[in-house]
Specification:
The protein has eight helices and two strands, in the order H-H-E-E-H-H-H-H-H-H. A hairpin with a 2-residue loop joins strand 1 and strand 2. Helix 1 runs antiparallel to helix 2. About 15% of the residues are buried.
C-alpha cells in the first residue's frame, strides 16, 4: 500500500487527477510511514524463539519453503526498509524528470500504482481458498472494505472532475476481489473449530 501510494503521488504530476485523490494518497503515505516506524520499533529481537514473529516464517507451498527474493520486506534491521523507500522515491523522481511528459509513461505509472493497490486482497483470497476457511479474517474488516468500494466507485463514476480510467478499471477489479471475499465468507465461514478450541469447550461443558 505504501509503494502504491508513493507511485500515485508521482502519477498525479503527469495525470493531474482530482485533488482529493492526491490528498488521500499523501495521507496514506504519512499513515503507512508512521505504522512502519511503530512496527519496526516494537518487533521482537531476532532469535530462534522469535522466528514465529517473522512474516511468512515457516510457511510452505507444498514441500517448498516460500522465500522472497533478497528477503524483501523481511529484513531484520530497520535501515533497509528506509533505504529501499528512499531509493525507490529517488528512482521515481529521476524517471519523472526523464519521461514525465510521455503519455505512455504516465499511463503505465498509473496502472502499476493502482494495480498494486487493487491486488492487495488476492493473498487473503488465496489463503481462504487453500484453507477452505475464513478463520482469522474479521467480518467487520470485510464490511469496511465493501463499504469503501461502494463509496469509491460512486466517486469515480459520478464525480464531475476528470478521473482517469486507471482508477475506474482497477477499482472495479478490487471491488470484484472484495466481493468474492464476501462469497468465500458465506461459503466457508470461519471453518471447522480447532481441536484446542473444541477441547476448551468440552471442558467448559463438563465443569
Amino acid at each position: 500500500m505504501l509503494v502504491a501510494s508513493i507511485l500515485k503521488l508521482f502519477y498525479w504530476l503527469g495525470a493531474r487527477f482530482d485533488l482529493s485523490l492526491l490528498l488521500q494518497a499523501g495521507l496514506m503515505v504519512i499513515v503507512q510511514l508512521v505504522l512502519l516506524r511503530v512496527a519496526l520499533q516494537n518487533r521482537p529481537l531476532a532469535s530462534a524463539a522469535s522466528n514465529i514473529h517473522q512474516p511468512f516464517a515457516g510457511s510452505r507451498e507444498g514441500d517448498t519453503h516460500v522465500k522472497r527474493p533478497f528477503e524483501f520486506w523481511q529484513w531484520r534491521q530497520a535501515k533497509p526498509y528506509w533505504m529501499f523507500l528512499a531509493y525507490f522515491s529517488a528512482t521515481l523522481l529521476v524517471l519523472q524528470i526523464l519521461f514525465g511528459r510521455l503519455d505512455s509513461y504516465v499511463a503505465l505509472q498509473g496502472y502499476v500504482a493502482l494495480g498494486i493497490e487493487a491486488t492487495l486482497p488476492l493473498p487473503q483470497i488465496l489463503s481462504n481458498q487453500r484453507n477452505r476457511s475464513c478463520k482469522g479474517f474479521r467480518l467487520s474488516v470485510l464490511a469496511n472494505w465493501l463499504l469503501g468500494d461502494a463509496m469509491k466507485m460512486s466517486f469515480f463514476f459520478l464525480a464531475e472532475s476528470t478521473i482517469p480510467w486507471s482508477f475506474k478499471l482497477c477499482g472495479i477489479f478490487q471491488a470484484c476481489c472484495d466481493s468474492y471475499l464476501g462469497v468465500q465468507y458465506l461459503m466457508f465461514g470461519e471453518g471447522p473449530v480447532d481441536s484446542i478450541d473444541g477441547l476448551a469447550k468440552e471442558l467448559k461443558n463438563l465443569s
